[in-house]
Amino acid sequence: MGTFKLGKMTLRSLVHKPATVRYPYEKRDVEQLFPQMRGHVVNDIDTCILCGMCQRVCPVGAIAVVNACGDVYDIRNGRPLGFGRMPDGTPVLCESLLHGAAPAPGTPRITTGQNTTIAVVATDAVITKAQAKRLATCAHDGLARAIRPVHTQMDGDTIFALGTGRVDADVNQIQLCAAAAEVMARAVVNAVAMGRDA
Questions:
Q1: Neighbours of 156 (CB within 10 A)
Q2: Hey, is 108 helix, strand or coil?
Q3: How many CB atoms lie within 10 A of CB 131?
Q4: What is the three-state SS of 77-92?
Q5: Catalytic residue among 10, 47, 90, 116
Q6: What phi-psi label fits residue 165: left (phi over 0), alpha (psi between -120 and 50 degrees) or beta?
Q7: Which backbone phi and psi does 147 adopt, to 5 degrees?
Q8: Which parts of the chain sit beneath pLDDT 70?
Q9: Distance (Å, rounded) from C-alpha 150 to C-alpha 153?
Q10: For the segment 78-132, what is each residue's pLDDT rounded down to a tens digit?
Q11: How far apart are CA 188 and CA 157, in angstroms?
């Protein structure tokens, strides 16, 4: 039965056009491939389950490597995902220390240069150098949504922005920057969630 399905799939793929292109020599009409993408992003964070389906609509994506000094919180429900622990496993939340809680005895000292968050935010749109800088700046808001405290003197947080140039259309820069902050926050949450599973 499995061999028959495989043969049927192989024959079907012989008649279809290839799904890939030799970029940048060949270009595809993105609006024809994704008719729902018309330069605007509709995203309801209250109903989001981090399934990634919005990535077909959103012209922005992000990836992050997180070793932040601050705690990482789930952007959907505000629960802490990543935080420090004492040798006995007791959680130590940075935010409680900021609000005046006394440090637990034996809390290790945090030294400069050991923590950072490095990330890339990319868009399929054609963007200028100034727009890329603005995109990276706005993506830092995504760090602030997911990490508390963020940008401490112990962190070396850096975000790089780039444009692939695949979509040569009028893109609303304000919506692009808003999407950059959102996908960066999700990338931080995903990085910590993946690290916990590893």
A1: 15
A2: coil
A3: 18
A4: CCCEEECEECCCCCEE
A5: 116
A6: left
A7: -120, 130
A8: 1-2, 13, 16-58, 97-113, 196-198
A9: 9
A10: 888 888 777 787 777 877 766 666 666 666 666 666 788 999 999 888 888 999 9
A11: 12
- Residue 73 has which token pair? 């919180």
- CA dist 127 and 103 (Å) reads 46
Active site residue 164: no
pLDDT averaged over every residue in the chain: 76
Beta strands 147-148; 71-73: pairing state:
antiparallel
- Beta strands at 80-82 and 71-73: parallel, antiparallel or unpaired: antiparallel
- Start-to-end CA distance of the chain, whole Å, equals 36
User: Encoding tokens for residue 43?
Assistant: 């995203």
Decide: helix, strand or coil at residue 160.
strand
- Six token digits for residue 94: 């940075």
Query: Helix (H, G, I), strand (E, B), or coil: what is residue 100?
Result: coil
Report CA dihedral (87, 76, 118, 147) to the nearest 10 degrees: -50
